[in-house]
TrEMBL record:
InterPro entries: DXP_reductoisomerase, DXP_reductoisomerase_C, DXP_reductoisomerase_N, DXPR_C, DXPR_C_sf, NAD(P)-bd_dom_sf. Its EC number is 1.1.1.267. Catalyzes the NADPH-dependent rearrangement and reduction of 1-deoxy-D-xylulose-5-phosphate (DXP) to 2-C-methyl-D-erythritol 4-phosphate (MEP). The gene is dxr. Pathway: Isoprenoid biosynthesis; isopentenyl diphosphate biosynthesis via DXP pathway; isopentenyl diphosphate from 1-deoxy-D-xylulose 5-phosphate: step 1/6. Signal peptide: none annotated. This is 1-deoxy-D-xylulose 5-phosphate reductoisomerase. It is an enzyme of class 1 (oxidoreductase). It comes from Edaphobacter acidisoli.
Length: 396
C-alpha cells in the first residue's frame, strides 16, 4: 500500500489521481490532501477519504472546512492552511509518494519541501520546474529522490527512455496538439475570446494550462521541463504538431530508431504509470484506459508556426538565456493569462506582455528558492505594469 499526498487534490489532475485510488484501493491510499479555494470539493474529498491532513489556501477557508467537518461528526481530519499547510501535506512523515499538481508557482515550496523530505514525486506541476528546475533536480539527485513525470509528454519520454541509455539519445520530440487555433489564420487571432481559447481539442484540463495550450506556451514550458528532467540542451528538444494527441512524445536515438508512446488521452494513465513505477499495473477493461488500435486511422506531424505562436519562440529564447528568464517567462504568463480570462487584455497581448517582461529581466540564476520567489514577484509586478499601462480591456 503506497500512502499518497496530493497537492492540488481538487483540480483536474488531483481528481484523476483520486480516481486511480478508487480503482486500486489495495495499492494507493490518499492520506494527505492540499486544496486551494474549492471548499465544497475539499469537503467532499475529506468525507470520502478521511485523510489525516487537509490544507486549504487561506485560514478562513480552513476554519470553514473544520467547522463543517465537525458538524458532520468528523474530528479525525486535521485542517491546516496556506503555503505552510501545503508543505505540511507534502512532508507528512507517513507519506511515501507526493503528487505535485497545484497550478503555478503556488506549488513550488511544497514540491521542493517534498523532495527535501525524500518523498518520491509524481510531477504534474511543470511551472515549478520552469522556475526552479535546477534547484529541484539538484535536491532530488543529492537525496536520490525519484522525480517521475506525470505531464503526458514527459511521461511518454520517460517510458521511451527505457529503450536506451541517456548517451544514446540524439534528440527528443514533444508532440503538441496545436490547440484550438492550430489552423486559425493570424489575422483572426485578435478576436479570440476566452470561451474559444478554453475549448481544447483533445484534453480536458484546468483553465491556466488550457489557455497555455492555446498560445502554445504550454509546449514552451514543456521544452524547459524536458531540458531539466532529461538533462538536455534546448537544441535537442524538438516540438512537432500532432493534432490527434495519440503519440504522446518520441525519443530519437543515435542509430536512427525512434521510439514513441501511444495511449488514450486520459491523464489517469500517466498518473498510474508514475504511481506504479518501476512496475506496470494491469488495468481492468471497465477503466477504459486501453488503446484500441482499430481507431488509429491517421497520425499527422508538422512543424510549429512560431509566427502565430510567439510564446513558443519566447520559451526557447528563455531556455537559452537561462538566469532569471524562465522564472519571468512563467510569472508573466501567469499574470497575462489571468488578465486575458478576465477580459482585461486580448489573446495576443499575452505574448506581448511576456516579451516585454523578458526584455527587462536580467541577472543570474537564483541560488535558493527564496531568491526564485523574489524574482517571480518582480516579474509579476513588471507584467502588471505592462498590462495596466499598455493594453485596453476587450469587448467580445
Ligand atoms: N490537467 C492536465 O491534464 C494536466 C495538468 N498539468 C499540470 O498540472 C498542474 C495542475 O493542473 P490542473 O489540474 O489542470 O489545474 P486545475 O486548475 O484543475 O487545478 C489546480 C489545483 O491547484 C489548486 N490550487 C491553486 N492555487 C492554490 C494555492 N494557492 N494553494 C493550494 N492549492 C492551490 C486548486 O485548488 P482549488 O481548485 O481548490 O482552488 C486545484 O486543486 C498544472 O501545473 C498543470 O500545468 C500537466 C499536464 C496535464
Ligand atoms: C495532457 C497534457 O500533458 C497537456 O500538457 C497537453 O499536452 C496539452 O496539450 P497541448 O499539446 O495542446 O499543449
Ligand atoms: Mn503536457
Amino acid at each position: 500500500m503506497k500512502k499518497i499526498a496530493i497537492l492540488g487534490s481538487t483540480g483536474s489532475i488531483g481528481n484523476s489521481t483520486l480516481s486511480i485510488c478508487e480503482s486500486f484501493p489495495d495499492r494507493y491510499k490518499p492520506i494527505a490532501l492540499a486544496a486551494g479555494r474549492n471548499i465544497e470539493a475539499a469537503l467532499a474529498q475529506a468525507i470520502r477519504w478521511r485523510p489525516k491532513l487537509i490544507s486549504m489556501a487561506t485560514e478562513e477557508l480552513a476554519d470553514t472546512l473544520r467547522t463543517r467537518l465537525r458538524a458532520g461528526g468528523i474530528t479525525c481530519v486535521e485542517v491546516v492552511h496556506g503555503t505552510e499547510g501545503t508543505v505540511q501535506v507534502a512532508t507528512l512523515p507517513e507519506v511515501d509518494f507526493v503528487v505535485s499538481a497545484i497550478v503555478g508557482v503556488a506549488g513550488l515550496e511544497a514540491t521542493y519541501a517534498a523532495v527535501c523530505a525524500g518523498k518520491t514525486i509524481g510531477l504534474a506541476n511543470k511551472e515549478c520546474l520552469v522556475a526552479a528546475g535546477e534547484l529541484i533536480i539538484a535536491a532530488a539527485r543529492e537525496r536520490n529522490v525519484a522525480l517521475l513525470p506525470i505531464d503526458s509528454e514527459h511521461n511518454a519520454i520517460h517510458q521511451c527512455m527505457r529503450g536506451g541509455t541517456a548517451a544514446e539519445v540524439k534528440q527528443i520530440w514533444l508532440t503538441a496538439s496545436g490547440g484550438p487555433f492550430r489552423s486559425t489564420p493570424l489575422k483572426d487571432f485578435s478576436n479570440i475570446t476566452p470561451q474559444q481559447a478554453l475549448k481544447h481539442p483533445t484534453w480536458v484540463m484546468g483553465q491556466r494550462i488550457t489557455i497555455d495550450s492555446a498560445t502554445m506556451m504550454n509546449k514552451g514550458f514543456e521544452v524547459i521541463e524536458a531540458c531539466r528532467l532529461f538533462n538536455l540542451p534546448p537544441a535537442q528538444v524538438q516540438v512537432t504538431v500532432h493534432p490527434q494527441s495519440t503519440v504522446h512524445s518520441l525519443v530519437e536515438f543515435v542509430d536512427g530508431s525512434i521510439l514513441a508512446q501511444i495511449s488514450v488521452t486520459d491523464m489517469r494513465l500517466p498518473i498510474l504509470y508514475a504511481l506504479a513505477y518501476p512496475e506496470r499495473v494491469a488495468v481492468a477493461e471497465k477503466d477504459r484506459l486501453t488503446f484500441d488500435l482499430k481507431t488509429l486511422s491517421q497520425l499527422d506531424f508538422s512543424q510549429p508556426d512560431f509566427n502565430r505562436f510567439p510564446c513558443l519562440r519566447l520559451a526557447y529564447e528563455a531556455a537559452e538565456a537561462g538566469g532569471k528568464a524562465p522564472i519571468a517567462l512563467n510569472a508573466a504568463d501567469e499574470i497575462a493569462v489571468a488578465a486575458f480570462l478576465e477580459g482585461r487584455i486580448a489573446f495576443m497581448d499575452i505574448p506581448r506582455t511576456i516579451e516585454q517582461v523578458l526584455q527587462v529581466t536580467t541577472g543570474p540564476r537564483p541560488a535558493s528558492i527564496v531568491e526564485v520567489l523574489e524574482a517571480d514577484l518582480a516579474a509579476r509586478q513588471a507584467a502588471r505594469e505592462v498590462i495596466a499601462t499598455q493594453f485596453a480591456p476587450v469587448s467580445h
